[in-house]
Amino acid sequence: MSTAGSRGGPTVRVTVGSHGPHDEQEEGRRVSAATAVLDGARDAASDVDVVETGPTGADRWEPLVLCTLDGRTAYHANCDGARAKRLVEAVESGSLPTDGAAAVVEHGDSPESLPTPEDGPLSVGRRRVLARCGWATADDAPEPVPVTDAESVHERVAEVGLLGRGRGDAHRDESVADAWETAREEEGDPVVVVNANDRDPRNQADPLLLESDPASVVEAAALAADAVGATDVVVYTTADEFLRRRVREAVDALVDEGRLESRPQVVAGPDRYIAGEPTIALEALEGSDRIEARLTPPSPAVHGLYGRPTLVHTPRTFAQVRLALSNPEAFDPDDADPGTRLVSVTGDVDSPATVELPTGGSMSVVRDAVGFEGSPKMAVVGGQFGGFTTHLDHTVSSPALNAANLGTEGVVELFDEDKCPVATAGKRARFAQDENCGRCAPCREGTKQLVNLLREVYDGDYDDDMIRELARTMRATSTCGFGRNAGRTVDTAVNAFETEFRVHADGRCPAGECNVASREANR
To answer: Which has fewest Cβ within 10 Å: 74, 286, 338, 433?
Structure first.
């Protein structure tokens, strides 16, 4: 089987993926459009190797055709089938097509990872866990990590001080090694769950990894299973069949190479936002008719799937695990949040992008990945229930984001002057009211009260103290992350844009977004 780094001859790669903030029909169209480009390239090929890869994370360049010849790669963005055919014909003739290329990168022979351009969306940040995205095929297994025995794997992860990443991680912003140690010490047969069921369309980090480098994620999950003595690995995904196919291809390749002792299960979860919460994911995997959050403690590492000690980590966390095992020098164990963070950038942008930033780096560079000029009026950091901020002068480390009451879920939304913070906060409060699981009163009743308080703003009654106290109570007493974070958007919007809330109470919307129709929708 060929690997990403062993293609020494002329090669044309076509990025095919469904990820992006779109509905299922649009996702299907994206795959179909990229597949048409792939078909056009293959129709013209005789000697050139034409391969299908996953996306790079830079949506504004997709579908992307990468032509590699004699140590150089030309990037051709937004291709169609006819153009792909012409590009392949040029490579077939022994010429690298550079006219019209978005970038041309010189590199050594047979690079293992995507040669990164000096400019453009792919130049932002550091591509470490994203290194193979857009370059490797789904069945291209990466080079084996040098550390594979169970005790050494656990020790290496502990040494680098890795924290869990993403909303679906049961140990988000907490020590991964501590969770593993807990699972190892508990009685019972441990299990490992790769939680990739995130229905927040803004968050594209996990889908990107599973579409573009699934083998790295699956192998890291298997190594974690060995480290805690687990016999089962479950990859818990959305119902996206394209993504699941990529995962199955990676599993097949790793099994064929003898790098997996047992075959992981690939299971689709419910098409609901709450299905990505770690304990609700376990309820869904157990087939519960009504999925709702479990009380914690005990954590899933103590009492998880069918009562077994369970590690629940996101693909992002496992990608960092694999990086820690293969390149520990990339981590500073003295850092409060070692490694890198994946950030999906969306909002009022032409095309979203997912970038990888050092945890000590400034969030402000994300504008370069999406071509957002100037400073946004506001940004929401942390996904569906992220926090409002008026500037991007924050680092992306977990301690810094938490201290600023911003989310660590890995999403930055940029909004221009036409967006109203009151309307934006109101829409997310209604989402929380409609989508919560209903188990705990602080979330179930608190979200209703939050919506009512925002409706009263439009009626001229702005009670900022009540809004803040309600958000604080929800954060302190809700059962799961959904309820704990649901009030953050409103709370931070009030803090950052209190003047606009008071102006709305006087009957005016400075952004002009809250017209009569939208006011009625808030009632």
So the answer is: 286
Query: CA distances (Å), 301 to each of 175, 188, 279, 478, in order?
Result: 12, 11, 11, 20
Compute the mean pLDDT over every residue in the chain, rounded to the nearest whole number: 93
Question: pLDDT tens digits for 176-206?
Answer: 999 999 999 999 999 999 999 999 999 999 9
Residue 465, number of CB atoms within 10 A of its CB: 8
* Identity at 436, one-letter amino acid code: N
CA distances from 293 to 285, 436, 440, 484 (A): 13, 10, 9, 12
Cα separation, 348 vs 518, whole angstroms: 19
Interior angle at CA 445, CA 439 and CA 451, nearest 5: 130
Per DSSP, the chain holds a count of helices (H) and strands (E) of 18, 14
Rg (CA), the chain: 23
What whole-number distance in Å separates Cα of residue 353 and Cα of residue 290?
Answer: 35
Angle between helices 498-505 and 421-435 (to 10 degrees): 90
- Can you tell me the mean pLDDT for 349-362? 94
Nearest of 2, 8, 1, 13 to residue 110 by alpha carbon: 8
Q: How far apart are the first and last CA of the chain?
A: 60
Residue 219 CB-half CA count within 13 A: 29
Question: pTM for the complete prediction?
Answer: 0.94
Q: Are 226 and 321 in contact (CB under 8 A)?
A: no
Residue 148 pLDDT greater than 90, yes or no? no
> What secondary structure letter does DSSP report for 522?
T
| pLDDT, average across residues 230-238 | 96
| Tens digits of residue pLDDT in 117-138 | 999 999 999 999 999 999 999 9
Alpha carbon distance 203, 214 (integer Å): 17
Q: Could you tell me if 403 and 336 are in contact, meaning their C-beta atoms sit under 8 angstroms apart? A: no
Residue 33 is predicted with a pLDDT of: 86
The owner of tokens 């780096």 is 361
φ and ψ at 357, to 5 degrees? -120, 145
Whether the Cβ atoms of residue 230 and residue 194 lie closer than 8 Å to each other: no
Q: What is the largest CA-CA distance in the chain?
A: 72
